[in-house]
Design goal:
The chain is an all-alpha fold. Helices cover 75% and strands 0% of the residues. The chain has one domain. The chain has 22 helices and no strands. Helix 10 packs across helix 22.
Amino acid sequence: MLIVGGLIVILTFVLIVKKYEARLVLFLAGLLMCLIGGLPGDVMKAFTKAMVNNSLVPTICTVMGFSYVMRLTECDQHLVQSISGLLKKGRAVLVPLSFLLTWWISLAIPSASGCSAAVGSILIPTLIAAGVHPAMAAATVLAGTWGSAISPGNAHNPFVADLAGTDMMTVIINETPAAIIASIACVAVMTAYAVVRREGATEERRQAYLASLGEDAKELEAFHVNPLRAIVPLVPLILLIISSKQVGLIPEVSVPLSMLVGVALGFLVTLTDLQEVCRKFFQGMGNAYADVIGLIVCASVFTAGMTAIGLTGALTDLMKGSQSAAAAAGTFGPFLIAVISGSGDAAAFAFNGAVTPFAEQFGMSIMDLGSLAQIAGAMGRSISPVAGAAIICAGLAKVNPIEVSKRNALPCFVAALVLMFML
């Protein structure tokens, strides 16, 4: 049965890489393995348990609803515009600064595609106008999107917290130092690449850009930042940090409550049509359930199938007592699948569901292994030429996505290695 299970798992990820619907593939693979393992009842047990997960569903759905309201009120654009002004003051450090800005902004805009659209629409033209090579301009923004891995709005953090039996902010605070050090490694390699290849800001490229400037640039120049609107997307993040057990400045605030506070502030600051705010919030919640919770549900069925057919036990025995094997699998499994498929979510959810609960048996904590898998998946997505974020960044820079991916390959690979050794 183990050989058959192994073949099913391999076929599952091949189909995900080939862009078949990940939820369908994971569900059918889990169903097939449960049937072969003689435990068909485990399918619906896993399915219904994940559907009503008290810690995951409210968190993920309210975060997505909040992001939809921020897009409606354009508060996200005001945040990005306010920060992008820093770029115009330091041409010599444009590449590392734009990466770091995107990395930190992605904490407030955790969707890679959403962050690429919001941040890239401002930073990429700004970088190109300053003389940065277009492909490098797109690469710095795309690489920065993996910072969302340590965001409270990232679906994986509450998932790992649920596995570890702790709260989400404990997981985030635990993984943040390693993620920050990995980001420094990533930006150092990227900056070195830009210097060696002379793809940073040059006067020749700046003059060529100015010569081709059209009417589009005038809209950006005419944009006036409203400080109150720029602060709103950061408010839920600030509330979660200062109310966490580790800081404790105010009584603990849940993720749903912090997001609802953010929505209310977005309305009060912009006075957008309240009915439209309500519609967008619940539209975001619905899409979150369909796209993210749906994936978690089907990954849970897949995990149940692996357990039923005996694969989970075999993998656990194989990695038992070998921290290096578990760390390598947790890093480069989701990483490589994300590179090929454009999404690390399916692989990370499947790995964390099947292997991470047994982390202590092979010398790692559940928090460390779970964080390692999901952050590595985000890094791999930042290399993939077929990821939605990559296509958006490449389109804004008017270059081929492959050119963007080539520039991110070494920085993100080094960052993944650093992360593995840190966790």
